[in-house]
Automatic annotation (TrEMBL):
Cross-referenced InterPro entries: AB_hydrolase_5, AB_hydrolase_fold
Name of this protein: Alpha/beta hydrolase
Coiled-coil features, chain-numbered ranges: none
Keyword Oxidoreductase: no
Residues in Alpha/beta hydrolase fold-5 domain copies: 83-245
GO molecular function: hydrolase activity
Membrane-spanning intervals of the chain: 12-34
Keywords assigned by UniProt, alphabetized: Hydrolase, Membrane, Transmembrane, Transmembrane helix
Lineage top rank: taxon: Bacteria
Amino acid sequence: MSAGERRGVRLALGIGAGVVTVLVLAVVVFAAWAHTVRTGDRSAVIAAWRDEAVAIAPLGDGPFDGARNGFVITPADASGDGLVFLPGARVEPAAYLWKLSGVAAETGLTIVVPRPAWNLAFFDTRPVSAFTALVPGIDRWYVGGHSLGGVRACQLAGGADAPDAGVVGVILFGSYCANDLSQTDLFAVAFAGEFDGLSTPDEIVAASGNLPESSAVFVLPGLNHASFGDYGAQSGDGEATVDSDTARREIAEAVAQVIGVPASLET
């Protein structure tokens, strides 16, 4: 090998090492960003755990499995139907316990709140059956989520395994479908916050063409984007004019109204 060829090989190896270094750094930075999550408000999480109308259990057998894997919320008066609910991007599942415990108590839905891979639902390749299988004995399931979690929920609802998993509908909080479900017979509803600055009511209505013809969009008064959870303010969001407890009641009552509450739960 000539001196020129040796120099060429060294140059190529140096460039290759540089590219690998850049890729490794990019992966490290992305991993650090993805695992920097918005945590649930402590008082809201404690209130959810103390709510006697529901029982909350971690998805797993260990004391810290809820933080790793997510939670299942079981109402005292279960309707027999379930909801798989995907968190928004980089929001921990616990941040939704207070709002979703209200939904469970009002509707009788058993709610599974998994932690997506990388805390980003788009990066979670598990099919919906992987989540519905976590709670045996439920034959009818809704899938839903908040923000980007709702976008992924729509994809799960349109997945090949969804009919066999018993998926009957989609419930979206501050979210919309990016894939086309308009030709399906799924039940679908989207709830928009009046002052949502990240998924505005107009944007959610504009995307409603991807939902089945019988679907509906409801605007909840006073809520912003973050009102669907309890994790603090988000940049670019509007200003909510209702507190967390009021938002919880609005959300729970709205879901109960649109899906229909079993007679055993009506007061």
